[in-house]
Write a structure and sequence with these properties.
single chain, 508 residues, alpha/beta, DNAb Helicase, Chain A, Rossmann fold, Arc Repressor Mutant, subunit A, 20 helices, 13 strands, elongated
Length: 508
Amino acid sequence: MDNVHYLREDEGPLTRLPPHDIDAEMRILGLSMYDPAEHARAAALMDPGDFYRAAHETLWRALSRLHAEGTPTDPIALNHELTRSGDIKRVGGAPYLHTVYSQAAVVGQAEYYAAIIHEHAEIRSEIALGTRLMQNGHSPDHDRELAGKLITSFVEKRTAATLDVAHPWAPLDLTDVVAGKQLNAAPEFLQRDDGESLLYAGKIHSVSGESESGKTWLLLLACAQLIGAGGVVLYLDFEDSAEGIVGRLMALGIPADLILQGLRYCRPDIPIDDAARSVIGAVIERDRPGLCVVDGVTEAMNLHGLDPLDNKGAAQFYEAVPRFVARKGPAVAMIDHVVKDAEKRGRYAMGAQHKLAGIDGAAYLVEPIKPFGYGAHGISRVRVAKDRPGRVREHAVGAVIGDLQMFSSEDRSVRVELRSPRPYDGPPGSAGGTHRPTALMEKVSRIVEETPGLSKASLEALTGGKREAVRAAMELLVREGFVVVEKGERNALVHRSARPYREAPDAS
């Protein structure tokens, strides 16, 4: 009868049952039989001796052997192994193996059940220590030295076990870092036309911009590049729809079969919880996506009941979603909005400052220069707002990392390119270089904002300074879409501000 507890050899008639959880033990064994990855995750958190039932420890050790050999671990294979070792009757026979196997629930939960089993084992070891100390204390031959040794041994084992676990507060092993094996790796995803990449594996990134700035197209370019190469993308969409994202990928020329093979699209409408983490963790474990896009940060935070303007809320969201995914290996890229007022925008997305502080990869701002739509050619400038690992800025000109060029054909197909920025060659007759007259560019921009319709000569006169330098600044402002030249009265060419230019965001 399942509800009858038979006394173990070390139990007396008045012994209280030690803490244990048979259901958790069966669940972890079922998960281990189902998936080698689950076995590995559990093995990192518990020891075989942590099982309360000796039969379960025997099963676990047999599973460990089979997993190490790369052989099947289903009930039939496990029955064969236990019969060979002479342990099949000891564990309850072949029917019990099928009972345990049926306990495998959603994959990705191994750590949860392993923690329960290990915690109960720790408590039992504490009870055992207390029992031995009590027995020694009541003994006529009480041995104080033995009591000290028992306590010392217990503390040393517990401390060593704690340090063996990869706890966030445990000191890191710096061997590989010192040997140069774990220096900041180069970015791997979202390639420019010259082959340089912008997104780091296992890091969190943000791509921010106004509506219709091209920020989604920029990351869909990264998705298309990876899927087209046979890779996998995880897309967590809080803003668009499956039709919208798939439609854009198909417009970029990705065949339907590759989209089905390489896109894992999710449209959550409830906050992330343990069940969701299990599902997403299983997808990452099984499909190994190189990139995860989180589309719509503001919408996602609102869904989780978090305030986008609050630093604490931003930190909670980063930990709940993007960092959870990044820890498992993929590069995470979040799509976010910026405030419309360029003067108040700063270097990061709309909302709390932690949105930038929490980025451990790179943050990018996408600024529209020429609007894009079907049948039109659009241009946006991509700037680096933050590059924590430091392997992106070296390929930027000032803060500009590239120009996003978007071309649409009559058949509604789309071609998107991220072109490397062109260095500024200096005014005519100069030796050239990469210097940008950013202070002068801001001065010219402010004059045009305050006094629209100025001719070239009037603008030069109001700006002052060397004519060649002023003309170079004007040329850059026009080329980059900050100032527009149009026909005025009597067909004279005049200057009008398209959007303000400020020096600070352009600083390297």
